């Protein structure tokens, strides 16, 4: 494997994903599901990092840093997949309330909601 093989090349999915994530008409859950569809095999996703790290013989610190990076990416991708699974099951179990009945994400604090005297 040479350095040219390690460079990423743009794919057809990249611009489509950016367009999807920027679309305000699509729910956050649908965006997350689309995102995880790009990372189906988690081990395969970090394999290039681990392969490159295994090629490093003299620079042990960089090799270890790359291994830790791969572990972190794997952990993050696993968390994302598991979170999406939970959110998907919750969404399928309960109907989505109308926009007028949604809960405020930042309710006013007591000091803000009570009149000042």
Structure, explained:
The radius of gyration is 21 Å and the shape is elongated. The protein has one domain. It is built from six helices and no strands. It has helices spanning 3-6, 13-22, 28-37, 42-55, 60-93, 110-113. The chain is mostly helical.
Radius of gyration: 21 Å
**Shape category:** elongated
The count of helical stretches stands at 6
Structure summary, number of beta strands: 0
| SS content category | mainly alpha
Question: Topology, pairings included?
Answer:
Layout: H1 3-6, H2 13-22, H3 28-37, H4 42-55, H5 60-93, H6 110-113
Describe this protein with a few key phrases.
117 residues
Question: Quick summary of this structure?
Answer:
The chain is an all-alpha fold and 117 residues long. It has helices at residues 3-6, 13-22, 28-37, 42-55, 60-93, 110-113.
């Amino acid at each position: 494997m040479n350095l040219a093989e390690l460079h990423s090349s743009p794919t057809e999915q990249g611009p489509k994903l950016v367009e999807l994530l920027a679309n305000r008409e699509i729910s956050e859950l649908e965006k997350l599901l689309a995102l995880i569809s790009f990372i189906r095999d988690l081990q395969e996703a970090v394999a290039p990092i681990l392969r490159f790290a295994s090629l490093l013989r003299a620079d042990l610190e960089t090799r270890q840093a790359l291994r830790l990076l791969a572990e972190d990416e794997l952990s993050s991708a696993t968390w994302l997949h598991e979170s999406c699974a939970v959110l998907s099951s919750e969404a399928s179990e309960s109907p989505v309330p109308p926009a007028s009945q949604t809960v405020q994400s930042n309710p006013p604090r007591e000091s803000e909601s009570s009149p000042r005297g």
